[in-house]
Amino acid sequence: MAIKNLGYLGFSVKDMVAWRQCLSGNFGLMEVAAAKDPHETTLFRMDCRAWRIAIHHSPEEDDLAYVGYEVGNAQDLATMAEQNRQAGVVITQGDAVLIQQRGVVDMISFSDPFGLTIELYYGATDVFDQPFVSSTGISGFLTGNQGMGHIVRCVPDAAKALDFYTQVMGFKMSDIVDLTLGPDMKLPLYFLHCNERQHTLAIAAIPSPKKIHHFMLEALSMDDVGFAYDRLSAANLTTTTLGKHTNDHMFSFYSRTPSGIELEFGWGARIIDVNWSVTRHNNVSIWGHKPTNND
Ligand code: FE2
Questions:
Q1: 259: which of 62, 247, 254, 281 fits an S-S bond (Cβ 3.0–4.6 Å)?
Q2: Is the pTM of the predicted complex or chain greater than 0.85?
Q3: pLDDT in tens, 157-186
Q4: Could you tell me the distance, in angstroms and rounded to a whole number, from the CA of residue 210 to the centre of ligand 1?
Q5: How many angstroms separate the alpha carbon of residue 79 from the centre of ligand 1?
């Protein structure tokens, strides 16, 4: 498939100061440069890339604004553009200003079936000459071929979203988790991959005012998660206890961003290999991930 990984996320947010505290102060991302104006865009690094998360000040919006998926080269970008056009998706070619802002060689953008802006790009900027330094001593984030993490997309119609993301975008099914909502009520969650990461994207027909339920960042050591859990627990900012997920075996906990979107912070997930078969699970967690009283 042409999509290699989840490359970046951009959020439109009301409270820039709180978001900077969340990403940099709480989770140890590296702020690229202190914004002179608190209303300006602020970029955050997780690795050798020039940026992985952007927050843009907005008086009205408080949600995920765009998702950047990486392709390998110009040919793959053209292939993806054509696949989307054939499916009736309206493609916008990235203009010079946007290409410069994202720091890529070329890009296109379009909307998924429920209004989330997707950007496909190639040629992101690496800055090996400016080493990643975590603001909280996080040893590092697992990125590379697995991309920056995963997102859980909330949609009104899971079948329509699945059709788009598998048939047009080329994601492959990893597994399905049947959430039990009541004695005769189950809600299937669909987990999709585009590389070794067990899931880069999940589809959930969960009513939500936000475009995603959560995004996940994976640290390089268990201690990174433990230290973050202690730090956030002390500030009453965790929304779940520590836990381990059934499908990717991620050891993680959840916290809430200032926009109400959850942030899963994890370590130690298993990966997809050539022998992977689609599976089902009846629970999202093997143990833990119990709600805390911090909601
Ligand atoms: Fe997750």
A1: 62
A2: yes
A3: 999 999 999 999 999 999 999 988 888 888
A4: 15
A5: 29
